[in-house]
Amino acid sequence: MTARLRVNPIACEAHGLCAELFPEWIELDDWGYPIIDDRPIPPEMLDHAQRAADACPTLALLLEVGPSGRDTGA
User: Exposed, middle or buried by CB within 10 Å (0-12, 13-18, 19+), for 39?
Assistant: First the structure.
């Protein structure tokens, strides 16, 4: 299982709560918009990532969880 944070730049209003709650993975640009680390989030940090996503007042931050590796399909 892999998990990554994604931000919807249209919905984001640069409140900055995500970076306060999860500074290990999110920093803010000069205008207060999040810059998200694109690496998969380690399992021990998933609770922090979910808390940051849940706290977003505009629901612009999403924690995507999927299978590990690439599904090649058949």
Answer: exposed
Burial class from Cβ neighbours inside 10 Å (0-12, 13-18, 19+) for residue 73 reads exposed
Q: What is the pTM of this model?
A: 0.82
Phi, psi (rounded to 5 degrees) for 27: -125, 165
- Contact assessment for residue 18 and residue 26, using Cβ atoms and an 8 Å cutoff: yes
Cα(3)–Cα(33) distance, integer angstroms: 21
The string of pLDDT tens digits covering residues 22-58 is 999 999 999 999 999 999 999 999 999 999 999 999 9
- Coil, helix or strand at residue 57: coil
- Model confidence band, residue 72 (pLDDT cutoffs 50, 70, 90): very low
